[in-house]
Write a structure and sequence with these properties.
The structure holds two protein chains of two kinds.
Chain A: E1 19-21, E2 24-26, E3 30-33, H1 40-50, E4 54-61, E5 82-85, H2 93-110, E6 117-120, H3 133-145, E7 149-154, H4 158-166, E8 171-174, H5 188-198, E9 208-210, H6 216-225, E10 229-232, H7 234-237, H8 242-262
Parallel strand pairs in A: 3-4, 3-10, 4-5, 6-7, 7-8, 9-10
Antiparallel strand pairs in A: 1-2
Helix pairs in contact in A: 1-8, 2-3, 4-5, 6-8
Chain B: E1 2-5, E2 8-11, H1 18-24, E3 32-36, E4 39-41, E5 56-64
Parallel strand pairs in B: 1-5
Antiparallel strand pairs in B: 1-2, 3-4, 3-5
Classes of the chains: A alpha/beta, B mainly beta.
Chain lengths: 292, 66
């Protein structure tokens, strides 16, 4: 007798669409940040292992006396990766608009496709790094008028999220918890409400959970809730082993998305046996209460 | 004449262009944007934008960030 070989089973590949944000199409639903890495080599490797094809970058003064020093763009293949400039460090709409324009000019001069989009961060408080909703809204309106596709970093407040969409944001990006805090999604109900409100009659509108992701299960949770994508930085960059975490995040994004598309079972109060009761040979000491 | 670049005083030739000032500062990379008195000077215009005494420049680049 030969060995028993299990039949090969065709794995049904779940068809998924690309992540579309304005005119941009991303293969990966994970967007990563380029900050807080030990060095540029680790950053590049983490980007590759994450499977992401979009990376955020910040805009800062060029050093005047170290012009031949390492530049971030020496480590990112901008043919493979779309750059998403952010307005990190801005505490007013005026500053955020100014920085966004500078970012656009850099990418335009380089011919990078990321020239017309921006991750808008307009902060209201330096300890929590929470966004100021009023200046975020103001900056969104201005930047939309200036022809930008604006991805708005915001809180998990559904009212603000809806205002930002109405103001023309190309995507709304609610935080799971404060930037870099690793607390994961503190209020999944609000994220669900944001998804419902912003996708009402507009199911393709992108909602991306951005900020506070701590580990892979947070990413999976975001995707299972129905988020179109996740943006994270510190969760990989400051993991004990960033390259291992980058791989984990890639799997978590796929797992969460496929679980969402698959449609989960509901949560029941009582059990529903997964083996049949018919033909049971064991004695049953209690009256049977068949689950209906 | 003296111009401010990233809030640092820089001594330079009167009537210098943005392009030549960048060369003077050793900045030859294209990964930058330049603002003069809060107005962005596009890359194509660096060679024919003339600077004046007291002009305030910002020269920015892309760095790692989330």
């Amino acid at each position: 007798m030969g060995t028993v070989v299990a039949n090969e089973v065709d794995v049904v590949a779940l068809d998924d669409t690309l992540l579309k944000i304005g005119p941009f199409e991303l293969n990966s639903r994970l967007i990563v940040g380029s900050g807080r890495y030990e060095n540029a080599t680790v950053m590049r490797q983490a980007l590759d292992l994450s499977g992401s094809d979009c990376i955020t970058v910040a805009i800062r003064r060029e050093r005047l006396h170290d012009a031949y020093g390492d530049n971030l763009l020496d480590h990112i293949d901008s043919d493979q990766t779309i750059l998403l400039p952010n307005t990190a460090g801005c505490y007013s709409a005026k500053d955020a608009v100014r920085v966004a324009h500078l970012g656009r000019e850099i990418l335009r001069a380089l011919g990078n496709p990321g020239a017309d989009w921006v991750k808008l961060e307009c902060l209201g408080d330096s300890r929590t790094l929470l966004p100021d909703p009023i200046s975020t809204l103001e900056a969104t309106k201005q930047l939309v008028a200036d022809g930008f596709h604006v991805l708005c970093y915001t809180t998990d407040d559904p009212v603000t999220a809806r205002r930002l969409k109405q103001a023309g944001a190309a995507a709304v990006m609610p935080a799971g918890s404060p930037i870099g805090s690793g607390q994961g999604i503190l209020n999944p109900n609000n994220i669900r409400i944001i998804l419902e409100y912003l996708k009402n009659e507009d199911p393709e509108y992108p909602v991306i959970v951005d900020a506070g992701i701590g580990t892979a299960s947070d990413v999976a949770q975001a995707m299972e809730l129905g988020a179109d994508g996740v943006l994270l930085n510190t969760a990989i960059a400051h993991a004990r082993q960033p390259l291992v975490m980058a791989t984990a995040m890639r799997h978590a994004t796929l797992a969460g998305r496929q679980a969402f598309l698959a449609g989960r079972i509901p949560k029941r109060l009582y059990a529903a046996a997964s083996s049949p009761m018919e033909g049971v040979i064991a004695t049953h000491p209690f009256p049977r209460n068949e689950a209906k | 004449m003296i111009v401010q670049v990233n809030e640092q005083a820089v001594e330079t030739t009167t009537g210098i262009t943005v392009l030549d000032l960048l060369k003077q500062l050793g900045i030859t990379t294209r990964h930058i944007a330049v603002e003069v008195n809060l107005s962005i000077v596009p890359f194509e215009s660096h060679g024919d934008t003339i600077l004046h005494d007291g002009d305030q420049l910002e020269v920015v680049t892309l760095v790692g960030g989330g």
